[in-house]
## 1
Amino acid sequence: MWPFICQFIEKLFRETIEPAVRGANNHLSTFSFTKIDIGHQPLRINGVKVYTENVDKRQIILDLQISFVGNSEIDLEIKRYFCRAGVKSIQIHGTMRVILEPLIGDMPLIGALSLFFLRKPLLEINWTGLTNLLDVPGLNGLSDTIILDIISNYLVLPNRITVPLVSEVQIAQLRFPIPKGVVRIHFIEAQDLEGKDTYLKGIVKGKSDPYGIIRVGNQIFQSKVIKENLNPKWNEVYEALVYEHPGQELEIELFDEDPDKDDFLGSLMIDLIEVEKERLLDEWFTLDEVSKGKLHLKLEWLTLMPTAENLDKVLTSIRADKDQANDGLSSALLILYLDSARNLPVSYILMDTLLS
């Protein structure tokens, strides 16, 4: 299947990722891929997990542990600045979810196929000529990491690739599903963090300037920085939509802000299915990947209701907590689908430009 998967990936790069990069920055408006060769080394599937609980009977959910290390050859250019760069190898490691739904009583038995990453995969790109690309006016603040984010986030929840296999399937409902719920994250405080700041060439240990990065899928929040404190108190609240469970996790990383490179202070991963079961978790969590430190979180699971019967009760509840979030706590969710447009006005200015 690999040659045909490569054809699909090339189409994905040209029709989805290329427009996304162009729209990310005005200076990238003439960005294009001039060559896309993914290579002959196929993607590997190192493990498959099938869910049998908390799953609709008309769907099959698979989590694939994928790994790709290939000698790819991808060339790109920005015509406006006569700038060219390329990619000579790509590595991708992550968990890709495959959903087969709806199951139907006729061949091919599956109505549609959806693909996406539950969280941003590890994506490493070996560039050639990246320095020339970043020397373009207006792109000097654009980093390798930002370019990777543009590419990877297009394949991370809530973004997904949905392929209909029969004509009768409601593709819009599969491509843009209603969220399963909302997790309200009270990012409260931490204790006993590592002191990363040093003085006198490392002889004297100091404190840290901690802040947190919170992720749910491609939803990312960053807390304020608490200066020179190993027991910081943030008392901030964030709300994230949860599109897939089981499988989605709350990811938190703590860092010490520095002028050059921020130091790592610990991480935490929480399965959101546990939050849904408990409805409310208020605990101290021990930080992973470091020798010490713990984090105090309060996590609430909010279920979406189809009617507004309890809206007054919800509004009363969040008014009592109105000081907990900078932009206020949510009481309802508005979902807007942009379906189509008709009879748009012709751009006469563009026509005059072309004719001239």
Note: The mean pLDDT is 84.
## 2
Amino acid sequence: LLILFVNDSSAPAWQGFFYTALLFICTCVQSLILQRYFHVCFVSGMRLRTAIIGAVYRKALVISNAARRTSTVGEIVNLMSVDAQRFMDLVTYINMVWSAPLQVVLALYFLWQMKSKDSRIKLMNEMLNGIKVLKLYAWELAFKEKVSEIREHELRELKRAAYLGAMSTFTWVCAPILVALSTFAVYVLIDEQNVLDAQKAFVSLALFNILRFPLNMLPMVISSIVQGSVAYVPQQAWIQNSTLKENIMFGQERREDWYDHVVKACALQPDLEILPAGDETEIGEKVWTEAPDMFCDKGVNLSGGQKQRVSLARAVYCDRAVYLLDDPLSAVDAHVGKHIFDQVIGPQGILKDKVGEPT
């Protein structure tokens, strides 16, 4: 309305002052509302942070000796400082989950020029609703020209939007070139002794191209690093019809020292000594053959405890960050279970630094 007033020279002056006053009042009200909103959010977040710190502190005073061995002082301090602060920050900006998409949608809606589209759709609806009248009075050509005129105006708007999109894409693609040009310009202008020759230019461009790849890949790498790769050991172990070594490595890269360490920790070394070809022995399940219509053995059959240890060794060899263990010691003997607990699962085992979750 304010822009329309400026463009209309015949409009009364009081309208301009009125629209300006409304704009000023709207800005003031927005500032007051936002101040109140952030005040409530900060107070609520501070109360939540205080409650979490108090709860953790009270729990730390009455924690048992067994739990104290698993929860260090550093972890407790981290809970009261870092994690509690994250909850406070979350309360402040939690409403952005729904308000940010709403603001974006409303902004795009108000920015989108819907006038031509609305006119064409309205006219088409009128034509379809009164199609009998159009046919009886032979008004098809007249309405066709009217629709075509509005459509041409809409196409011009779409073409302009396409040109703007092309310019935006062109600017994005040319950003590396513009960075290089600006760098060379600054290098030449800051000092008269700086001479840009072919050697410096080509070497700099080559270095710029080298720099682009790590800068583009660094966010992706960081995102991949922070993501709680998981290994799962089911209660009912399964094996493939392949060699024992391939069942343990399971497509992972070949690391002989790590493989030997995993085999010994999972108590598979005695089994390798009695197998015909060691870890190259083909193991498998009973498979159905169509010719004799019966089950037959393919490879050496393992006992339940041996399968369970192979399954555990496969998960340990993958070297994941989180391990889900579904009673991995259920099918093994007592002394073997103690060996696996000491060498793999226990506080001195291979998985001592991993995150474990019993299922």
Note: The longest strand covers residues 230-233.
